[in-house]
Design a protein that fits this description.
826 residues; alpha+beta; six-stranded mixed beta sheet; 34% helix; 24% strand
């Protein structure tokens, strides 16, 4: 009955909205676009559960215009299955209202792709438009000038989110503003793009999956202003578009990717998918410095090879990583734009492969030939260069700076109010966890009331697990995870108790007469031992599920939804297999190695191939690992104590490298030992000489190989002498008593990463963390607010971007200016 009443009310609202809808979004006014999108919308419902199909067909029947059809046509059907049709309807209604206030200034396709589009990344669909408007954006909608509306939107985001490094699972805008007030760069992207679209500004996500010149990635937003795409990063420094912390890195970047749905003729489309197009946005950043790369793939006779997989790769996190994987046409040709930095092209087809470095050059047009050979051993010893570009930092007006400070205080006030609410309930046994739930405390408290006193071991688990779980779980899910934890040995590997495997949404627990539980009974098997249970569970899974990319729902599915399907994608099958093994008390986890998962059996982690249904050591018929010794020296033959993370061991599969779980253990100065399986492995050894130069070596390791010597040219080892003027900023007592001083700020990612690095060393060094703002409720230990540092940052804001690290050596204070991943190890 409630559902019927909701539909009647919604229908009345929509009749009013449709009456004033721009003709370009109606069936009669734009029949060609309507017909095309209508067909896609109906097709997108085919794999949904019957109940979801009925609800979305109702929307298509009652709201039969281009906007509603687009909202259903261009969202992954897996997202539609997880969403409530009421949330989609709410977003539709707000889009129609915006069109009443702001006349259409763009083509219908452009408006749909960048204003009407609901999701930004992998977050769940929610009724976020109404929520964001109610949270303060209602006033921003009224601003007529797009540039000022952009500035007001970015400033509003400062009240709702502060950077915090968390897991890769995306929060949705509603969870951000009501539960966490925090997130990593992709949450910043999600919130801003969602907010911009809500107020009628075209916006889209942009990213570099891997930087070329440093070990990291980044996601940010692009907004359409003044007839062009412009970028924005930090919301508290967004007054001028195209000015953020990475502006000076544009020429170092190889590819910048943006996402749309219906591309324009001006877009350089790299990949066209069912729901999204991947657009090469690099020219919007590099401008006239953009390089045009033209590729021809051939075999050993020079004959063109068509449909060749070509990965654009850069060195990042210890190995060559793919920014994007493209394909040549039937004639073996491929063309794309790129930035100025060095990169690799890795090509593969039918057992033939090629690996080609593409060096920086003054030429803006490069024609390259990729010769694919069989059994192509890939040995590399190269210096990669990444040229810098000049950038101008413009100072925002004082009034803007003052407004940003006010908005940061609003954020702090909200955090203080959440904390105060927790303290009113006591909960001394669970106080730390309760405080970390932030705006989701009510759900945690509901669970706590019915299960107190909680086992201290479970509280330790919650404290160490992903904080996003604390921000998003409802009382039922808290209970389900707790009951599963109680049913298992708490000394098992922690991942056994994780309710998610990769970046999928949190599952919905199962309600029983005894309460909520995480897994259904028919997921759980009895066996003589863990290996026996594992085989029984996977045997049953093989009978119940078929891998069919066409018939399966798309995207990452919640575990409970995946469990109810008949057809799964390869990725969904792997994730569900891990969940089923965990349900049977067997720790298992995700690996990027195709078709594989990792399983903890017999006291060790082992790779298991789901396609072949065997452990990897069975494939090589070699259960004995080979111990290999690696010696690292400088150009003069002296041993080098390098960071073991710089030595990674990788399998090469169809043109891509996959890092395996093998760790180089230091034995003595410059020497390491590693245990390797009896397979062909590629050692990647790379290091950053500066942010403009990286050294990379790739060595093929044959099965049974026992020794390898590496010569590390120009390996960076030293700090710079600290400037005396810089030391004058600091109290004499600090300089006399501390070993390390970090000049940054409590909410600055680079400062926090450097602090994490030193704490992880567990060296006993005493440190001070100096910030240019008071830290509020962050409560970082050893944090000191310094007016002198604040004054210096005020005079030269660029200093705050990298921060400064000081280290007291036997020769005096040393300084390091740069990002955390380049921090020298002493």
């Amino acid at each position: 009955m409630r559902k019927f009443i909701f539909m009647i009310i919604s229908l009345a609202i929509c009749v009013s909205l449709n009456a004033s809808l721009d003709a370009q979004f109606t069936r009669e006014g734009n029949p060609d676009l309507y017909t095309r999108i209508r067909s896609l919308a109906e097709e997108n419902l085919n794999n949904l559960p019957q109940s979801s199909q009925r609800e979305y067909r109702y929307l298509l029947t009652e709201y039969d215009d281009i906007i509603m059809n687009y909202l259903i046509a261009y969202e992954e059907d897996g997202k539609l299955a997880e969403a409530s049709y009421k949330d989609l309807l709410s977003n539709y209604q707000e889009i129609c209202k915006i069109l009443e206030i702001q006349p259409l200034e763009y083509s219908p396709e452009f408006y749909l792709s960048y204003v009407a589009r609901q999701s930004v990344a992998d977050e769940r669909i929610t009724a976020y438009r109404r929520a964001l408007l109610d949270a303060g954006l209602e006033e921003v909608v009224k601003i007529s000038d797009p540039l000022e509306r952009y500035r007001a939107t970015a400033s509003w985001c400062v009240e709702k989110l502060k950077f915090e490094q968390t897991s890769g699972r995306d929060l949705n805008p509603v969870d951000i503003i009501h539960h966490s007030l925090a997130g990593r760069c992709e949450e910043m992207q999600i919130l801003f793009v969602a907010a911009a679209r809500t107020v009628g500004l075209p916006a889209r996500p942009a990213s570099t999956p891997y930087w070329a010149h440093m070990d990291n990635n980044h996601a940010w937003a692009e907004v359409w202003l003044e007839d062009g795409w412009q970028y924005t990063g930090d919301m508290d420094a967004a007054y001028y578009p195209n000015q953020t912390w990475f502006s000076g890195m544009v020429d170092k970047t190889v590819l910048i990717l943006a996402q749309g749905s219906m591309a324009t003729a001006e877009d350089e489309v790299l990949i066209t998918g069912r729901y999204e197009t991947v657009i090469n946005s690099t020219p919007n950043y590099a401008g006239e410095r953009t390089r045009k790369i033209e590729i021809l793939s051939v075999d050993e006779t020079g004959t063109p090879l068509g449909d060749v997989k070509v990965a654009v790769m850069v060195y990042n996190w210890g190995a060559l990583r793919p920014i994007i994987v493209l394909k040549t046409d039937a004639e073996g040709k491929l063309a794309f734009s790129a930035g100025s930095g060095d990169f690799f092209l890795s090509a593969y087809k039918d057992g033939r492969s090629a690996l080609l470095p593409v060096k920086a050059s003054e030429s803006r047009e490069l024609s390259l030939e990729l010769e694919l050979l069989e059994n192509n051993a890939q040995e590399v010893d190269i210096m990669l260069s990444y040229p810098a570009n000049e950038t101008e930092h413009r100072q925002a007006p004082d009034s803007y700076q003052e407004d940003i400070r006010r908005r940061k205080q609003i954020w702090q006030n909200t955090m203080d109010a959440w904390e105060a609410e927790v303290y009113t309930h006591g909960m001394q046994d669970s106080l730390g966890v309760a405080l970390n739930t932030r705006g989701n405390f009510a759900e945690y408290y509901k669970f706590y009331q019915t299960h107190q006193p909680l086992d201290p071991g479970f509280l330790e688990f919650l404290a160490s697990y992903d904080p996003k779980f604390l921000w998003q779980a409802d009382a039922a899910l808290f209970e389900a995870v707790y009951r599963f934890w109680q049913s298992q040995n708490p000394e098992m590997e922690p991942c056994l108790f994780y309710p998610t495997v990769y970046y999928e949404e949190l599952p919905q627990p199962i309600k029983t007469r005894k309460g909520y539980k995480l897994y259904p009974d028919n997921m759980i098997w009895v066996g003589k031992n863990p290996r026996d249970r594992m085989q029984k569970a996977l045997d049953r899974m093989e009978k119940l599920y078929k891998i069919d990319e066409e018939k399966a729902l798309s995207g990452l599915l919640r575990m409970d939804l995946a469990f109810k399907q008949k057809y799964l994608t390869k990725m969904q099958y792997r994730l569900l297999a891990i969940s089923i093994l965990r349900a049977n008390g067997i720790p298992a986890d995700f690996t990027r190695l195709p078709d594989n998962i990792v399983v903890h059996l017999d006291g060790e982690w082992q790779y298991y191939d789901l396609k072949e249904r065997r452990f990897n050591d069975e494939e090589s018929q070699n259960t004995e690992l080979t111990t290999m010794r690696i010696r690292v020296k400088d150009e003069n033959g002296f041993p080098l104590q390098v960071d073991p993370a710089r030595l990674t061991f990788n399998r090469y599969i169809e043109g891509l490298y996959y890092t395996i779980n093998a760790e180089a253990i230091p034995i003595k100065a410059g020497e390491f030992e590693v245990e390797l399986p009896g397979q062909e492995i590629y050692l990647h050894f790379g290091y950053r000489i500066s942010d403009s130069c990286t050294a990379l070596q790739i060595h093929r390791i044959e099965p049974g190989m026992q020794e390898l010597e590496l010569v590390a040219k120009d390996y960076p080892q030293s700090w710079e002498d600290a400037d005396e003027e810089l030391l004058l900023l600091l109290d004499k007592e600090l300089l006399e008593t501390k070993d390390i001083i970090i000049l940054g700020n409590y909410d600055h990612e680079n400062s926090l990463r450097i602090l994490e690095h030193f704490l992880a060393l567990d060296s006993g060094l005493d440190y001070a963390f100096i910030g240019h703002q008071p830290q509020g409720t962050s409560r970082l230990p050893n944090y000191i607010f310094s007016p002198s540092w604040q004054a210096l940052v005020s005079r030269d804001p660029a200093l705050a971007m990298p921060g400064i690290t000081l280290y007291r050596s036997s020769e005096g204070w040393k300084a390091f200016f740069g990002r955390w991943e380049s921090l020298p190890i002493d």
